[in-house]
Amino acid sequence: MSTKDNKGLKILMLHGFTQSGPHFHDKTRALEKAFIKAFPSSSLHYPTGPLPLRPADVPGFVSTSQDPGDKEETDSFAWWRRQSGDSPLYSGMDKGLERIAENIRQEGPFDGVIGFSQGGAAAAIVASLLEPGRRHAFETAYNKDPQKFKYPSSFVNDDGQIIQPPVKFAIVYSGFAAPFELYSAFYQPKITTPVLHFLGSLDTLVDEARGRVLIDSCESGSQRVVTHPGGHFLPSQKVWLDPAIGFVKECVNGTATKKAIKEDDVEDMDVPF
After folding, report:
1. Shortest CA distance to 38 belongs to which of 62, 2, 14?
2. Around 98, how many Cα atoms within 13 Å sit in the side-chain half-sphere?
3. For position 263, what pLDDT does the model report?
4. Residue 118 φ/ψ, nearest 5 degrees
5. Those residues with Cβ within 8 angstroms of residue 133's Cβ, 6 or more apart along the chain or in another chain
6. Is the CB of residue 39 less than 8 Å from the CB of residue 46?
7. Distance CA 17, CA 51 (A)
8. Hey, which residues does 206 pair with through a beta bridge?
9. pLDDT at 260 (0 to 100)
10. Where does the pLDDT of residue 25 fall: very low under 50, low under 70, confident under 90, or very high at 90 and above?
């Protein structure tokens, strides 16, 4: 094992829509254990999104109250909410990014970021925002069209510097790209941070087409794609943990190479079922 492998990592963990930091932590115990085994003294940090959700926002929520209304607590949160109808706006995105920036200031800097579903989308956004030149891309886009999303002020320190250096890696489970031109500066130019994308072949909430839009928004030589034979969840079996650990080792040891997108699927792996 390389000496670099022994260095502990700080990893920012971003939960999905309707989850929370503690809930996501419970769902990723196996992943956390694998990271700590591969990188002793590592720490995974689980902030919670700032937007509490109402019962009606949570698919499958069953009320225990005779008169639940909108005030019933669900312990479900989001980083942003998509407005109803055909609106191109993500309501609360500024607040979501501000919460993430607060966590970076308090507990970072982070070596990498991992997210699931909406948190996967957010993980790619965080990686993008920390890249050199991204702030200029936002300014250019905004000068051409003032309707475009501005570079979030929460990611800029009082001295005008970005809150932390670029992350070394991002891992996105069932992630997607913000689908409207309003948010194009997140992805144009393409994200250059090494990204590992996990797609579920049976995922009906974030289908492969949506995931592919985000994949196509990342520089091809800096990413990997793994497809697992399941739905909308973070796979925790060893066969799916190993690619994540191997990818991070490449990134932190500086052995990741610029090459065509590598894709692995269930047919190429010794899956235990």
Report:
1. 2
2. 8
3. 59
4. -60, -35
5. 189
6. no
7. 10
8. none
9. 43
10. very high
Q: Which amino acid type is present at position 64?
A: T
Cα separation, 41 vs 128, whole angstroms: 27
pLDDT bracket for residue 1 (50, 70, 90): very low
* The model scores a pTM over 0.85: yes
pLDDT-based confidence at residue 147 (cuts at 50, 70, 90): very high
Q: What's the CA gap between 36 and 240, in Å, rounded?
A: 16
Matching residue, tokens 């144009």: 188
Least Cα distance to 172 among 108, 220, 227, 105 occurs for 227
Query: In which order are the strands placed within the sheet that holds 195-200?
Result: 43-45, 10-14, 112-116, 169-173, 195-200, 223-228, 262-264
Q: Quick one: pLDDT at residue 81?
A: 93
Name the CA dihedral angle for 108, 112, 118, 121, rounded to a multiple of 10 degrees. Answer: 120
Q: What is the dihedral of CA 242, 5, 125, 57, to 10 degrees?
A: 50
Please, are residues 87 and 147 in contact by the beta-carbon 8 Å criterion? Answer: no
